[in-house]
Amino acid sequence: MTGAWAAMQRVFEERERQEIDEGRVARLAELAARVRELSELVILSQADEMEIAAVTREIELLTARLAAAGRGIPPSAEVGDGGVVRQLGSPVTGLLNTLAPPIEIRIGDDGTARSEFTLGLLYEGPPGFVHGGVSAMILDHLSGCAASANGTPGMTAGLDLRYRRPTPLGVPLSAEAKAVRVDGRKTFVDSRIIGPDGRATAEATAVFIMPTR
Amino acid sequence: MTGAWAAMQRVFEERERQEIDEGRVARLAELAARVRELSELVILSQADEMEIAAVTREIELLTARLAAAGRGIPPSAEVGDGGVVRQLGSPVTGLLNTLAPPIEIRIGDDGTARSEFTLGLLYEGPPGFVHGGVSAMILDHLSGCAASANGTPGMTAGLDLRYRRPTPLGVPLSAEAKAVRVDGRKTFVDSRIIGPDGRATAEATAVFIMPTR
């Protein structure tokens, strides 16, 4: 585990040494946002087979155009508000990852990691509600940010989730996470997703273990 | 909770009553697959600002074409191998959801839900490894399938995850889940993700509660 951790840190550092062209990143973030809109239509569109096939060919051509310019390594972290390192390719927070909602995380003065977001059709589990696994993914990520904000980052060792009630789709949600206890190399983080009525829909306790150096 | 469950069941049934045109679904699945490839390039492409902007405009036009044909409701479940109901728009298994890897789930004779899959760059957490939240999402979903296969479906009440070691990106992984105990309205499901070396990278215990009728 220690070796894997050290190797990951080296790759993170290499990615962070990349020059980031903010103009290009803004354009790519815009492209990712438009691909998310396209993705909803892939589920809902009533287009006929011929039209779908035509759109598919166009997508292949656009992919080829993007590929023709060459492939880099995933864009390095940028430091956001409150000193949070943001991976641009992250499946949870990454502006350039079309899978990511993406959620934006801020760290409060008391070390609480917070985010507000609305999840649409692409994140649906039961009809009209957020997939429980998506809630798990967001709380996992937010908890990691809280452990880092606490100065005790580490590998996730455990995540214990309690689902209190369904999390509604398409309405403003918030989530928060805070390190509540450090015991040797272990950091415990409590987190929750909060619905529009102010009640927690899902709660979690995460445990992070700091690797030995 | 009971009211929400009943409402979800009604929507599922409405979606299942939709006529499914298998030819169209196959075309849409192909389109979703091509959008996943495009998505990787949004993270990696070295294209310049002008080229990115041009591709973005083309994506907008394609979205408009798909929208012009009208929007339906998310395509109904199709029954897969082993009687597993497959939501075509699911963020985990949905062939039409560009977020989904997608994973295909089979139910064995002993009721074990199994899947084999490879996760690429879009699912990255630590460099070279799967995001812990993605592992959580897959185990959450697979556990739900195992509870259903056991004849005791329900709302997820809890998911207790233990991360044993990092899960590698870009190599064949497998996952399995099985209902191990039913206690009144509660069903307990054990699950794990298994790396190429045969060792579990993440394990979970999920609890599902059957709503009262």
Automatic annotation (TrEMBL), chains A, B:
Its EC number is 3.1.2.2. Keywords: Apoptosis, Cell membrane, Cell projection, Cytoplasm, Fatty acid metabolism, Hydrolase, Lipid metabolism, Membrane, Transit peptide. It catalyses: (9Z)-octadecenoyl-CoA + H2O = (9Z)-octadecenoate + CoA + H(+); dodecanoyl-CoA + H2O = dodecanoate + CoA + H(+); tetradecanoyl-CoA + H2O = tetradecanoate + CoA + H(+); decanoyl-CoA + H2O = decanoate + CoA + H(+). Residues 128-199 form the Thioesterase domain. Gene3D superfamilies: Hotdog Thioesterase. InterPro entries: HotDog_dom_sf (IPR029069), THEM4/THEM5_acyl-CoA_thioest (IPR052365), Thioestr_dom (IPR006683). It is found in: Cell projection, Ruffle membrane; Cytoplasm; Membrane. It is a peripheral membrane protein. This is Acyl-coenzyme A thioesterase THEM4. The lineage of its organism: Bacteria, Bacillati, Actinomycetota, Actinomycetes, Streptosporangiales.
